[in-house]
């Protein structure tokens, strides 16, 4: 029954112009109405956001608020405006930039510089000022610092993602060679004062290097996540690498570590940058420069000697942006652990308009959407701070050795070596893992050409992770991979019980041969995670609805075909 509303107008402002002789209405009361505002929820005018920002480069910081600047895609940004609108600007949080130093005299950084938490491990003094070169080679750290903590509303350069946070400079890259003790000292510097460590560096991105942290640095990282921030854990943010399609970030032991949050980048129209490396350990993405040669498509930030730049780029630019978003979340909830931050990244990152021509978006066994390049999507500061406010610390973490194959298995071109491990994930034991976080495949393998090796692993719930892609510049025929921990985050939240499948083969035109000597499956996760159950229920509900719609569509098509058939006969 449809009911007209023409006789229900007594609470509206009715003027005589509405009443004609033909209008048969019984008007009992006429009230004057006072106008008041209403706003669409989830929508804020860009002009409203701009009002209080006087910084000259702010309008060019498309990764903060993307209105289509520099040929970008409107709306493709970090959604910091929502977080700022909720009052979170990074206040009380300290981010350390581990790099080639910081120009802490820069007028856009000086007010937010944390001298107490800063140190120069290259020169062994408390003043991490960049060493001068004619080509400004040591501008890297200063540019990264500005992305995080550049002050707002001071008419200088742009605005940091967490513009009221404190930034510390840890100078450790500017010496003839790196040492384990310098890395370890940097990563463990003042872990009760520094909340977040941002690293935009790693092993050489030449497509043929396999390298990672040494013994002291590994111990420093382990101590950081276990003891830093009063036991809540230091948060390590790592750039995934700039080796492009010639490299694989699972060959970088820093970016692929469980203890770091590996960040890849997207450009301002949503595509992957040409220098982006792909790997299954990447957790999420932020932004770097655009592909088109628009002079304003780079990342706008601070530069050496009080200058500003529009030309910062690479995954070097992506990691500090992520550190800034995490600072906003930590302000919203200072009790977040290092694992909480990873869970929040998985749950609140968005596909948005990110896309790649090679790697498509997929869903894992519990319905979480991921991409081999972008991880779980672009970080969403607004969503993250809102979830962080109500977040309850995740349950205790457990580790289970699910199984190990130690026999020698030959690998030949033209075929695949397929191995399986069936596991109950330590069920019935204290270290039982029911909900996955990280999964490691510790592999010892070599080949006549390491760069042609390709390794995939499929979980019991059917999620395939590309553990190693081909690297065309890697000619190694001797070293191979020795107990190398290939890591995936793509099975996050899944039940690990069942059969895991490892596929190893060669790709390329030339015939190759090799041998796999070990595959040990390591499971890391929790015994309870209530939010995963809710995600599964929502996913199953959507699947059921989708299947119902498909059936209805098929039925409609069948009816239409029948009608057409009948009409044609008549």
From TrEMBL:
InterPro entries: Galactose-bd-like_sf (IPR008979), Kexin/furin (IPR034182), P_dom (IPR002884), Peptidase_S8/S53_dom (IPR000209), Peptidase_S8/S53_dom_sf (IPR036852), Peptidase_S8_Asp-AS (IPR023827), Peptidase_S8_His-AS (IPR022398), Peptidase_S8_Ser-AS (IPR023828)
Cellular component aspect of the GO annotation: extracellular space; membrane; neuron projection
Enzyme Commission number(s) of this protein: 3.4.21.94
One of the GO BP terms on file: peptide hormone processing
Subcellular location: Secreted
Chemical reaction(s) catalysed: Release of protein hormones and neuropeptides from their precursors, generally by hydrolysis of -Lys-Arg-|- bonds
One MF term in the entry's GO annotations: serine-type endopeptidase activity
Residues of the active site: 99, 140, 316
P/Homo B domain segment(s): 393-529
UniProt cross-references to PROSITE patterns, sorted A to Z: P_HOMO_B (PS51829), SUBTILASE (PS51892), SUBTILASE_ASP (PS00136), SUBTILASE_HIS (PS00137), SUBTILASE_SER (PS00138)
Any one Pfam family match given in the protein's UniProt record, by short name: P_proprotein
This protein's UniProt keywords: Cleavage on pair of basic residues, Disulfide bond, Glycoprotein, Hydrolase, Protease, Secreted, Serine protease, Signal, Zymogen
PANTHER family with a match to the protein in the record: NEUROENDOCRINE CONVERTASE 2 (PTHR42884:SF13), PROPROTEIN CONVERTASE SUBTILISIN/KEXIN-RELATED (PTHR42884)
General function of this protein: Serine endopeptidase which is involved in the processing of hormone and other protein precursors at sites comprised of pairs of basic amino acid residues. Responsible for the release of glucagon from proglucagon in pancreatic A cells.
Family classification: Belongs to the peptidase S8 family. Furin subfamily.
Protein name: Neuroendocrine convertase 2
């Amino acid at each position: 029954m449809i009911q007209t509303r023409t006789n229900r107008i007594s609470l509206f402002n009715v003027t005589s112009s509405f009443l004609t002789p033909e209008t048969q209405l019984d008007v009992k009361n006429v009230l004057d109405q006072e106008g008041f505002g209403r706003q669409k929820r989830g929508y804020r005018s860009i002009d409203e956001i701009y009002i209080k920002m006087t910084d000259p480069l702010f309008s060019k910081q498309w990764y903060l608020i993307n209105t289509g600047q520099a040929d970008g895609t409107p709306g493709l940004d970090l959604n910091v405006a929502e977080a700022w609108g909720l009052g979170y600007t990074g206040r009380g949080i300290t981010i350390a930039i581990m790099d080639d130093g910081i120009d802490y005299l820069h007028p856009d950084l000086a007010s937010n510089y944390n001298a107490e938490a800063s140190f120069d491990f290259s020169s062994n003094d408390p003043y991490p000022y960049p060493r001068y070169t004619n080509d400004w080679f040591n501008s890297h750290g200063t540019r990264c610092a500005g992305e995080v903590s550049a002050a707002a509303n001071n008419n200088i350069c742009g605005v940091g993602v967490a513009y009221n946070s404190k930034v510390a400079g840890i100078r450790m890259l500017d010496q003839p060679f790196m040492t384990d003790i310098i890395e370890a000292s940097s990563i463990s510097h003042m872990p009760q004062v520094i909340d977040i460590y941002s690293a935009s560096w790693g092993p050489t991105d030449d497509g043929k290097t396999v390298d990672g942290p040494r013994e002291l640095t590994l111990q420093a990282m382990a101590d950081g996540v276990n003891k830093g921030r009063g036991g809540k854990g230091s948060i390590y943010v790592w750039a995934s690498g700039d080796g492009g399609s010639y490299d694989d970030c699972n060959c970088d032991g820093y970016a692929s570590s469980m203890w770091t949050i590996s960040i890849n980048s997207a450009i301002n129209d949503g595509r992957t940058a040409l220098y982006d490396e792909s790997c299954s350990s990447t957790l999420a993405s932020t932004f770097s420069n655009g592909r088109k040669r628009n002079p304003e498509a780079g990342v706008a930030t601070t530069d050496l000697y009080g200058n500003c730049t529009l030309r910062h780029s690479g995954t070097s630019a992506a990691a500090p942006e992520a550190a800034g978003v995490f600072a906003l979340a930590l302000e919203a909830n200072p009790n977040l652990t290092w694992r909480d931050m990873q869970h929040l990244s998985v749950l609140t990152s968005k596909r948005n308009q990110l896309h790649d021509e090679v790697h498509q978006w997929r869903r894992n066994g519990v319905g979480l959407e991921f991409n081999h390049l972008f991880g779980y999507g672009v970080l969403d500061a607004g969503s993250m701070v809102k979830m962080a406010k109500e977040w309850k610390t995740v349950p205790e973490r457990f580790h289970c050795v699910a199984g190990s194959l130690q026999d020698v298995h030959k690998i030949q071109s033209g075929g695949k070596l397929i191995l399986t491990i069936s596991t109950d994930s330590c069920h019935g034991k204290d270290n039982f893992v029911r909900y996955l976080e990280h999964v490691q495949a510790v592999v010892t393998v070599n080949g006549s050409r390491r760069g042609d090796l390709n390794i995939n692993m499929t979980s019991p719930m059917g999620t395939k992770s590309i553990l190693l892609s081909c690297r065309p510049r890697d000619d190694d025929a001797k070293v191979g991979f020795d107990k190398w921990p290939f890591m995936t985050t793509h099975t996050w939240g899944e039940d690990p019980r069942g059969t895991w499948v490892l596929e190893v083969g060669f790709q390329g035109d030339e015939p190759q041969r090799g041998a796999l000597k070990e595959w040990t499956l390591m499971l890391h996760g929790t015994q309870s995670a209530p939010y995963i159950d809710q995600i599964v229920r929502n996913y199953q509900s959507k699947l059921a609805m989708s299947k119902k719609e498909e059936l209805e569509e098929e039925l409609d098509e069948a009816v239409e075909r029948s009608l057409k058939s009948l009409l044609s006969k008549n």
